[in-house]
Structure formats: structure tokens, C-alpha cells
Automatic annotation (TrEMBL):
Organism (species): Methanococcus aeolicus (strain ATCC BAA-1280 / DSM 17508 / OCM 812 / Nankai-3)
UniProt remark on cofactor binding: Binds 1 zinc ion per subunit.
One Gene Ontology CC term in the entry: ribonucleoprotein complex
Pfam family, one: Ribosomal_S27e
Record-listed Zn(2+) binding positions: C16, C19, C35, C38
Gene Ontology molecular function: structural constituent of ribosome; zinc ion binding
Protein name: Small ribosomal subunit protein eS27
Signal peptide as annotated in the record: none
Record carries keyword Cell cycle: no
Matching SUPFAM superfamilies: Zn-binding ribosomal proteins (SSF57829)
Zinc finger (C4-type) residue numbers: 16-38
Length: 61
């Protein structure tokens, strides 16, 4: 029986600092992630992990 390693990337539940709406985003985004309500950039791509510019409310498993 082969063991499958757990992925290092997670989905994050974040809150927009401008309009306080919540949404779920990927922790390693490939493009800029914007708020669906006001359009503010919540996350930017980086080399490995994303630069999260919003308040992280929780990590989804």
C-alpha cells in the first residue's frame, strides 16, 4: 500500500479589508485575486506561496 503525501497548498477563507465580505481563495494563486464585491486585490502570485493582503479567517482542509 503506497502512502500519498498531503498537499502543501490550502484554500483560505479571507475577509476583504475594504468591504468586509468573505470569500474562499487558493493559497498559491497563479493570477491576482480580486474581491468579488469591491474589486480590491486580495492576493498576488509569488514564487511559491501567494502574498495575501486580506485577513485570513480560516484554513480549509
Amino acid at each position: 500500500m503506497a502512502l500519498i503525501p498531503k498537499p502543501r497548498s490550502r484554500f483560505l477563507k479571507v475577509q476583504c479589508p475594504d468591504c468586509s465580505s468573505t470569500q474562499t481563495i487558493f493559497g498559491c494563486p497563479a493570477t491576482d485575486v480580486v474581491c468579488i464585491t469591491c474589486g480590491k486585490v486580495l492576493a498576488k502570485p509569488r514564487a511559491s506561496k501567494g502574498l495575501i493582503k486580506a485577513k485570513i479567517l480560516g484554513v480549509l482542509e
